[in-house]
DNA sequence: TTGAAAGCGCTACCAA
DNA sequence: TTGGTAGCGCTTTCAA
């Protein structure tokens, strides 16, 4: 490993001088700079971030905590924060919590042990005591809360929009799927849809689900049609479940969207790959990730007048599982 | 921040002693140990990994380099390595390279700057000069090569299996999709299928694709049926493309699997969510990730007699896009 | 069985 | 404009 000392020797100057040209601060003569630069190039010198981090008490690392990258909504989110964070020279320490508080704790500990400068968390279990104790800039992603800076999309509006769409397209027997209780954004959209449905004059049923896993999605779908066989429209709790419902309907010989309309939520990439392509409410996941990163970086830099709550708009994407009016 | 010094003071011992109980090495008296433990608990002490890393010249971090986590095959892989690595107390520094050599370089630099103990790379652009210069334990994932430790699945066999399956089920006009040229595993499976097809007495066409993106998949599918309208079986380059082909076929009024059979590759989770559910060749992605992590850790520990090339078996998953014989 | 102290690579203060 | 050096928090020798 080539250190700052080696560079100093090669250039015939002191380590202090090398440090100065490295960090572009303090006075350093033009030709001294040149000598040092040359020495650095010769030796392929690259500063040791660990040593820097130790002294400055902060690294160029940012912690990203996710529930599970395996869930298709999160890779987009993650990519958004990564790309944005990279722009500013930061890198990501990644953790999947599986909604397990212990794992979350462990990761947070790792983050501080490694001097991360900030963290973004897309976890559902915001342990307030824990996060309050945290001395780090933190932004919550895909979560709405008063207590911490956060970026999220308008779940209530999304739910309303989903319901409104289904309503306008003449559904008579709507089944509203309620996502897992501990997933806050799922509850928001549920409430939004609920509001809209309650105001309208239609029959509807509520079908509760307790997970978002691929494996379970198919079972929920089966159960739904068994329980509510005359359903002619379902507002799914997310796209995965929506696609499962779609295929279950197809299996049962229903025509889509003539007999059953379906609207999903999220707009994960594979929506357009379902057949018929799933209509859905789009959350701008990649953009959410980017904005979360931007916000975090502003917080890290202690900028003034930063808006600590960013709500991104949600959008109807009409594809082929809703009627064309 | 509470440091080892604070603990030492609280316990009335020296920092050296605290360090000893922390690392469970060297002699330390039973009651001294107890005092120290208590002090650590009182102060909620958690050692600074950065300081440790600086002294030992290695962190508890492992670098993971991926092409793009947004591609549904990779989250599984990533999760596999994360889970395994966590078991041994390591954490992940994550990077997406987008198959861009410069980004890859930058990430690798970050990895060494942060004293990672090893890295796993699932990138296609193995720049040998670069990797050779690297002084780190490295394992290649989803890549077959003689030059570095690697874990991958048997692509050639997978290709053969896909072709064999299609052949046995009575296809007459097969279209074999060839994946992007720079993606080595895609070429392996292509070659395998090609071998099998060449030996058989059937007509077949080769259709070349240059990307794996969601957006492009649909275009490939359209183009395929325009170019080869009498195709009655397609061996897709991966599941995404397979699903796109499936839906394009459906759009064109073909019955699946009666008129057209389709076989994918990878077995990403959303396969079972397509309709009809996509038959495919399964790569054990999660397991591949785990094994890569295990191998890397063995390498890090300089264990002897470790098998540096791990080939995992591939497996036919018959669902509904291939005939039942 | 314990403590003092050097040193990991770097930054930043103070002096020259 | 430069260099010497203390010190970031930890581990590990060496001595006691």
TrEMBL record, chains A, B:
SMART domains: HTH_LACI. The keyword Transcription applies. It holds the Pfam family Peripla_BP_3. Residues 2-56 form the HTH lacI-type domain. PROSITE patterns: HTH_LACI_1, HTH_LACI_2. InterPro entries: HTH_LacI, LacI/GalR-like_sensor, Lambda_DNA-bd_dom_sf, Peripla_BP_I. It comes from the Bacteria. GO terms for molecular function: DNA binding. This is LacI family DNA-binding transcriptional regulator. It comes from Pontibacillus salicampi.
